[in-house]
Design goal:
alpha+beta; 4 domains; 7-stranded mixed sheet; 6-stranded antiparallel sheet; 23 strands
Length: 696
Amino acid sequence: MTLQLPPEPGPAEDAIYRAMFGAYPDALLLVDAEGRIVLANPEAEHLLGYPVGELAGLMVDALVPDAIRPRHAAYREAYSHGPKARPMGSQMELAARRRDGREVMVEIALSPLQIEGEPFVVAAVRGIEAYPRVRQALQRASYSEFVAQMGRLAVDTRDPQLLLQQVPAVAVDALQVDSAVVFLLDTTRLEFHVAGGVGLLASEGVGSRCPNRPDTPPGFVLAQGHAVTVADFRVEQRFAVPPDYLTHGLVSALAVPLVDRGQIIGVLTARARAGERFGADESHFLASLSNLLAASLQRSQSEEALNHAQRMESVGQLTGGIAHDFNNLLTVIQGNLQVLEDHPALASDAVAQQMVAAAARASRRGAELTGKLLAFSRRQQLSPTEVDVAELIESLADMLRRTLDQRIRIEVAAVSRGLRCLADAGQLESALLNIAINSRDAMPQGGTLSFSCGTCATLPPDVAADLGDRAQGQAYIEIVIADTGHGMTDSVRDRVFEPFFTTKELGRGTGLGMSTVYGFVKQSKGSIRLTTAPGAGTQVALYLPRRRGAADMEGSLAEEVPGGLPLGLEALLVEDDADVRAVVRQFLLSLGCRVTEFAAAEPALASLHGGARCELLLTDIALGAGMRGTELARQVHTRWPGVAVLLMSGYSSELLQAPEDGPAAWELLRKPYERTELARAIGRALKARPQNLGAR
């Protein structure tokens, strides 16, 4: 068989071939055996970014990316020894180097041919980045890279402000849009504020505010609870489009909510001057950025909350120790003042009596101060009972109406009847009063102070996190006190529960009001939530365990006062502080007791084993380095159960542990105390001991 070659082309055919070469839609390169480009069509010059006529004469290696150039030279050499046609699509991961150095993804077909006996190769090059599926894949890969970049930044940084700046910048860069903004909800959830952005409008400076309403752009996203796409602001009807949007030519937008532990805390939005700009891939990308930002903000808040809790715990331990020692001093001061008050030499001296009374009042104020410190440090002894919350609130509101500034309106709203919480009634009333006084001071020109309470079907996420495992299976009552005062800045809000912190002028507060509220609520196994903003008032919500059904706690014997103590009561007093011991001894003697005193538990116990009589053991809990008072009481109770036990403490942590160390019949007496309080406590201790057993 003889192969018939076509005749040599004439001038007309040559013109046709050149026209076809020039009009071909793919880039065509004719390359000689040395790798030099002989001819290039206009599409090749366009694809590779070269001026007309500049590709001819270049080595083809100039079009190969630097990273693969050595491999390409070896491949071209091997191809020259066995040239064969290679169609498009046999390799997908090819790249060509443009004149400006940028790389472009391509497909390449190779066709070997002979011209006048010389070998040549025709390379057909097709740019594939314009393919819809390839462009989509490249875009997704780009988005993934941007998300990974932000993920690395989120891991490395602890500064939320940096992320609030970087996330909008990344959104603008990746989506190739005109602006991106982060809106965060204020603690009141009534307003958004601009926390960061790129391409902000004149009305959108960082810190500027926008109402949280469904007719505002971010408010609409929050109301929908999912991503929202705007195709054209000029015809948008779902919410009111700010005039600035249209003035600056913004047309389309994509907004996604920022979600923290199931609750929307803000909105991330991207806006463009082009219409129909956002699709599913863009929505997924922006949602990924918002999730990263929300997680980072949550981590920052959690770390700050942990640091704050650790600081509060450290301060609590310090204040508890101070209060314990201070109460011992006050016991000595108050005791000696009472002795002086009854001393015959001062009975007719009116001036001396006034001085003693003034000193006694000052010592009582000191005791109240230490009580507040111990409330904050959660080292006070509470007497929890079932409290009718509605009744307590209404009673307190009536009292406040009579005592507060008449320009302050007191409202009791939405009070559910029959709700009972388990708390110390006196301390709860004191906590609500402290909050009310702060609200009064925040409304110097008058305003509204409102109270409400009800069952809490679902705890707010931050409250649930604060309560932790305690919230499992436990119902809570929510007590809310709100005012229309001037509110607090973020810096004040962050420190409001710290002891001795106050914004009031000198002489108008100790700074312990809110710290005692905090300590009381925490010790009552509850939580507290404060919502405030400058100019928006303050709302304080207390969450306390709810009691169901009838009370299962018997009334306290604390208010029972015996008719008198038996004369000649044999009392064994154990107290390591000599001054306190002297005061208590004097009290006991004045009550008609016979007193045997010791500075430590060991000799007191030895005296009992030696046959000493005892009807009442009165011992401090902390007794220096030796045996604790609770251990002494346990041994006495075990060996001589008929002996009444009365423990004393200066409100420190051992007072809270005392009920765990012994039977409920042991009476606890807080320092400092007056003689009448000691008499009542002795009476209760005697009444609680087994009646059919004799004393030691």
